[in-house]
């Protein structure tokens, strides 16, 4: 039986809620993004004779139809928090290639069917995935674990030095129903 249909074990002192499935028997994630326009692709690394090869982005994955305008990396010390930020026109594609991070999203687009939804995903070197984040979706990142995390971003539009497409809120803002810290 699955989910809440399972009977509670007899003789337990405390009761709880049974876990819902999170992966298939092939260890593919079951948690589709709950925010309109957000896409995720879990990526399998390929073992080679001298390490691993991990594809980060391929056009035929059809995660989005936007070009790659710039690629940049961000290092995050253990426990580092980016705070909330959003873009008016830029699409982010986040990939953590060292360490691990929790990406938290909040759909702030009033016309979106998922307006007001919060969603989280933990990604990293041990569980590679790329997450595409459309304009108008607030996002924050927290570095997890004891090592420095390395986050790549493959944006569709390069950073505009004279007019940055960035809006920011603190990690504990009251405007988003989730605190990053």
From TrEMBL:
Ranges in a coiled coil: none
What EC numbers are recorded for this enzyme? 5.1.3.13
From which source organism is this entry?
Mesorhizobium plurifarium
Q: Name one GO biological process term.
A: polysaccharide biosynthetic process
Cited PANTHER family? DTDP-6-DEOXY-D-GLUCOSE-3,5 EPIMERASE, THYMIDINE DIPHOSPHO-4-KETO-RHAMNOSE 3,5-EPIMERASE
Role noted for this protein: Catalyzes the epimerization of the C3' and C5'positions of dTDP-6-deoxy-D-xylo-4-hexulose, forming dTDP-6-deoxy-L-lyxo-4-hexulose.
Q: Where is this site: Participates in a stacking interaction with the thymidine ring of dTDP-4-oxo-6-deoxyglucose?
A: 159
Q: What is this protein called?
A: dTDP-4-dehydrorhamnose 3,5-epimerase
Highest taxon listed in the record's lineage = Bacteria
Q: Give the Pfam families listed for this entry.
A: dTDP_sugar_isom
């Amino acid at each position: 039986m699955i989910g809440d249909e399972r009977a509670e074990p007899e003789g337990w002192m405390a009761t709880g809620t049974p876990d819902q499935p999170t992966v298939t028997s092939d260890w593919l994630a079951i948690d589709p993004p709950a925010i309109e326009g957000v896409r995720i692709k879990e990526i399998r690394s390929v073992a080679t004779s001298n390490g691993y090869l991990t594809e980060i982005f391929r056009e035929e994955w059809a995660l989005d139809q936007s070009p790659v305008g710039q690629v940049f990396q961000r290092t995050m010390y253990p426990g580092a928090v980016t705070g909330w930020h959003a873009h008016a026109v830029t699409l982010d594609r986040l990939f953590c290639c060292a360490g691990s991070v929790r990406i938290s999203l909040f759909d702030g687009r009033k016309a979106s069917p998922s307006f007001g939804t919060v969603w989280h995903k933990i990604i990293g070197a041990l569980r590679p995935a790329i997450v595409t984040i459309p304009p108008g979706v607030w996002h924050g990142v927290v570095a997890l674990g004891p090592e420095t995390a390395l986050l790549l971003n493959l944006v569709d539009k390069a950073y505009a030095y004279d007019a940055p497409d960035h809006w920011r809120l603190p990690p504990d803002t009251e405007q988003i129903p989730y605190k990053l810290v």
